[in-house]
Amino acid sequence: MARIPATAVAASGLVGGYAVARWTKKRPLGGVALAAAGAVAAREWQRQSGGKAAAGLTAAYVAAFAGSHPLAKKVGAWPAVFSVAGAMAAASWAVGRQNG
Questions:
Q1: Runs of H (alpha helix) within the chain
Q2: pLDDT digit string (tens) for 84-93?
Q3: Closest CA to 61 of 80, 89, 83, 98
């Protein structure tokens, strides 16, 4: 079975979590999607790069989610979500490349 890269899972979790919350109008459901993707990404980061890298990237994932809220007030919701998803993907890729 092919693995989906943690980089894609993390970015998709941020975008998908927001999309689910927005379109269903149920924020907790979006949180479930966000958390599920974060857990899958964290497990893959752990496998690929070890515990310290996984902890750092998981913290970055949570920070990206939190940071999207004030950013959205400045640039709009979707641009904020795509910006933090891109930053998270870049961080994940850089750490994976360094440790891979």
A1: 6-24, 27-49, 51-75, 77-99
A2: 999 999 999 9
A3: 89
